[in-house]
Amino acid sequence: EFKRKNKKDLTGNPRSMRRLRTACERAKRTLSSSTQTSIEIDSLFEGIDFFSSITRARFEELCMDLFRSTMEPVEKCLRDSKMSK
Q: InterPro entries, per this entry (predicted)?
């Protein structure tokens, strides 16, 4: 989103990436108890501020492939142990 809005790629800047990951982790935790949250980072990269909001539904949509892939080992383990869900 930052790259799309500002035409700047911050992936090569470890400090900016760390700040973004920290803010996203905080947003993820907030979404556990709220339906929407915002991410605000002052001077994220080259003096450019970042602001975005995300809903729990959008977060789940973005992570759905990851959620599904975590179920595969669980289902295999259940099959191997001859147990059912």
A: ATPase_NBD, Hsp_70_fam
User: How far is residue 83's CA from residue 79's CA, in Å, rounded to a whole number?
Assistant: 6
Alpha-carbon distance 45 to 11, whole Å? Answer: 10
Q: How far apart are CA 26 and CA 54, in angstroms?
A: 12
One of 2.60.40.10, 1.20.120.550, 3.90.640.10, 3.30.70.100 is the CATH number of 2-80, namely 3.90.640.10
Query: What are the residues facing 45 on neighbouring strands?
Result: 48
Interval 55-68: pLDDT, tens: 999 999 999 999 99
- pTM, two decimals, is 0.76
DSSP 66: H
